[in-house]
């Protein structure tokens, strides 16, 4: 992928996608992470939305370029193009609607069809604040995540619970993959060209990613 | 879940505690007039004078419009036939808000649909079930959530919106319900009754006057893809420097313009601008969406060409307030000639993508056919070739569903005589 220029300072730039059924809270997770905002009056997403935020991992600045996609099936004609080049994904379901968890499998397939198999995936059970309405148990989701070798966390964009952790974990994982890869080939990770999008999926990355594995926190 | 069409609003919902602008949108707390409130920056005395002058001018306009329309729209077709250019000019200046709902129904052809299909809407709302009901309900409170009419949970606004969307999803089962349709229906419901809004949606998507737009929502979103292709080419041709910059920064129109087409600017644009665009859109067709898009890019051109990827995306989703003034951007838009190129690009695109388009077309026909030949639809208005498509530009409408062709043609004097010039 070509270099994106930006005038703010960062060491790594990672492209991340937010996917999952309509109404599970993707846009609010994004606004909570990038602007620390939550809106009860938010509109349904039409097409795609975009936001960025930088975090610090070790002594490096890692910038996330996050694409938030419309959840309705019909929109995949547009949104699936945005999977290309993504090195991380948050696959979101709503803990109060079991069907959104059942659909996770299809989303995973969709993701794996369109991205490199080494993409870092975090399964996210959102709306965990609605305890009395819970329809998906933490155990079921954990088991599923282990089986599929993805990370897993429950979040609440409303209460700001675990949102930071979920994104940070994904970005850190990607960072570990990239820096390990750089070490493996005897490179100084800091010497990677500034402002370049790191593509974990490029061929020589494959082994590096597999060694890292995934957290099933 | 509401199954019943609610005809009578319950008395007196509590008046909103939050202030609203003249269209009924809540004014943001910082009061930065994002939804089209009037900006005042002159002194108090001149404001009063200006307001009085504006009021007088508005009253004169309304009188002219009333004369043009006649009682309940009785003179409209006659007037359009006799003075199409006057109508065009007046519509481009903006339809008076108090007549907007009626005029929209007249120019979109939905009035005729309504009259020819008595009882159909009620049937759809009351007796049919839709597989999209849950999807619709999920989005109801996410459609114009900052508007006073739609804000109240299960209030009249939300119920009307649900009814219209459900009815449409039954009427056209191939399209069903797709996110984005709610903004179209919502905008219409602020100016007309449920039943009127429903038929206007039908007129638009099935192509009563212009080319059908159901392809915006069909599986694969074929029309969205075509519009984005056309728009990208137009940007390169009309604004080559910006087009080049977009290529360098890897910006494509799906990143910023899908919403423009899918909701005809009703999703996130200032409401006063959206309404003025809709005035023209319903009369002249989708061309205005391309023109306004190009005009916005042109207006901000010198800034946009300097911006890197991320800032560019942000700028393309947040145009400055002065660019959003309808009296600035619409004249600019009308001055951009696109109709001929749009046609050519449409053919270019369809040639490139022949197979998928054909598939989408044929898959939509049989079901629709069955549906429309059923009892309650036997009076359906039919009109296959749109004005544009049967006009001198002479393009056959490949996207017209076959099911529409066999049906009785509604004579539409008003639209036949319409010749729209850019």
TrEMBL record, chain A:
What's one GO-annotated cellular component?
endomembrane system
Q: Does the keyword Transport apply?
A: no
Select a single GO molecular function from the record's annotations and give it: GTP binding
Q: Which UniProt keywords apply?
A: GTP-binding, Lipoprotein, Membrane, Nucleotide-binding, Prenylation
Annotated membrane topology is:
Lipid-anchor
Which family would the database say this protein is a member of?
Belongs to the small GTPase superfamily. Rab family.
Q: Give the PANTHER family listed for this entry.
A: DRAB11-RELATED
| UniProt name for this protein | Ras-related protein RABA1f
Q: Which organism is it from?
A: Papaver somniferum (Opium poppy)
Q: What is the lineage of its organism?
A: Eukaryota, Viridiplantae, Streptophyta, Embryophyta, Tracheophyta
TrEMBL record, chain B:
Region feature Disordered, mapped onto this chain: 1-53, 383-422
Q: Which portions of the chain have biased composition (kind: Polar residues)?
A: 30-47, 383-397, 411-422
Keyword annotations = GTPase activation
Q: Which GO terms describe its molecular function?
A: GTPase activator activity; small GTPase binding
Q: Name one Pfam family in it.
A: RabGAP-TBC
Q: Which PROSITE patterns match?
A: TBC_RABGAP
Can you give the residue ranges of the Rab-GAP TBC domain?
A: 94-285
Cross-referenced SMART domains: TBC
PANTHER family in UniProt: GTPASE ACTIVATING PROTEIN AND CENTROSOME-ASSOCIATED, ISOFORM B (PTHR47219:SF9), RAB GTPASE-ACTIVATING PROTEIN 1-LIKE (PTHR47219)
Mind telling me what this protein is named? Rab-GAP TBC domain-containing protein
């Amino acid at each position: 992928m070509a270099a994106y220029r930006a005038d703010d300072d960062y060491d790594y730039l990672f492209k991340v996608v937010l996917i999952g059924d309509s109404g599970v809270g993707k846009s609010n997770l994004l606004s909570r992470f990038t602007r620390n905002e939550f809106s009860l009056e938010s509109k349904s997403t039409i097409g795609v939305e975009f936001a960025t935020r930088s975090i610090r991992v070790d002594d490096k600045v890692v910038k996330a370029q996050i694409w938030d996609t419309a959840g309705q099936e019909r929109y995949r004609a547009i949104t699936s193009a945005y999977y290309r080049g993504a090195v991380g994904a948050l696959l979101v379901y709503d803990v109060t609607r079991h069907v959104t968890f059942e659909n996770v499998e299809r989303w995973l397939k969709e993701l794996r069809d369109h991205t490199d198999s080494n993409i870092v995936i975090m399964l996210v059970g959102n709306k965990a604040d609605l305890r009395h309405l819970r329809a998906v148990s933490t155990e079921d989701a954990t088991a599923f995540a282990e089986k599929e070798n993805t990370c897993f966390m429950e979040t609440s964009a409303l209460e700001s619970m675990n949102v930071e952790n979920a994104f940070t974990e994904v970005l850190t994982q990607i960072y570990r993959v990239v820096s390990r890869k750089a070490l493996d080939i005897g490179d100084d990770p800091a010497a990677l060209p500034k402002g370049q999008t790191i593509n974990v999926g490029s061929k020589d990355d494959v082994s590096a990613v597999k060694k890292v594995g995934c957290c099933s926190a | 879940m509401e199954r019943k069409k609610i005809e009578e609003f319950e008395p007196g919902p509590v008046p909103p505690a939050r202030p609203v602008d003249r269209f009924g949108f809540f004014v943001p707390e910082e009061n930065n007039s994002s939804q089209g409130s009037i900006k005042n920056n002159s002194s108090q005395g001149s404001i009063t004078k200006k307001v009085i002058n504006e009021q007088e001018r508005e009253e004169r306009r309304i009188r002219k419009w009333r004369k043009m329309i006649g009682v309940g729209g009785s003179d409209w077709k006659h007037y359009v036939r006799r003075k199409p250019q006057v109508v065009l000019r007046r519509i481009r200046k903006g339809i008076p808000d108090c007549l907007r709902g009626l005029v929209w129904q007249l120019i979109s052809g939905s009035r005729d649909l309504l009259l020819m299909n008595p009882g159909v809407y009620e049937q759809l709302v009351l007796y049919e079930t839709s597989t999209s009901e849950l999807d619709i309900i999920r989005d109801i409170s996410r459609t114009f959530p900052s508007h006073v009419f739609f804000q109240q949970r299960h209030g009249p606004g939300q119920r009307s919106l649900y009814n219209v969307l459900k009815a449409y999803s039954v009427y056209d089962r191939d399209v069903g319900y797709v996110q984005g349709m709610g903004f179209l229906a919502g905008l219409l419901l602020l100016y007309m009754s449920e039943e009127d809004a429903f038929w206007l949606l039908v007129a638009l998507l099935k192509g009563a006057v212009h080319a059908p737009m159901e392809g915006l929502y069909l599986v694969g979103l074929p029309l969205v893809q075509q519009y984005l292709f056309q728009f990208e080419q137009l940007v390169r041709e009309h604004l080559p420097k910006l087009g080049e910059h977009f290529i360098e920064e890897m910006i494509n129109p799906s990143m910023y313009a899908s919403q423009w087409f899918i909701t005809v600017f009703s999703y996130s644009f200032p409401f006063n601008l959206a309404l003025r665009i809709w005035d023209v859109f319903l009369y002249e067709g989708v061309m205005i969406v391309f023109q306004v898009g190009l005009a916005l890019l042109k207006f901000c051109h010198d800034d946009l060409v300097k911006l890197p990827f991320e800032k560019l995306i942000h700028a393309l989703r947040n145009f400055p307030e002065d660019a959003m003034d309808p009296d600035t951007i619409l004249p600019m838009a009308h001055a951009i000639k696109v109709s001929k190129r749009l046609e050519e690009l449409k053919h270019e695109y369809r040639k490139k993508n022949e197979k998928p388009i054909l598939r989408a077309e044929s898959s939509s026909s049989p079901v629709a056919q069955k549906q429309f030949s059923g009892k309650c639809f036997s009076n359906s208005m039919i009109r296959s070739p749109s004005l544009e498509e049967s006009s001198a530009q002479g393009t056959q409408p490949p996207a017209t569903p076959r099911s529409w062709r066999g049906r009785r043609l509604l004579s539409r004097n008003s639209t036949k005589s319409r010749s729209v010039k850019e």
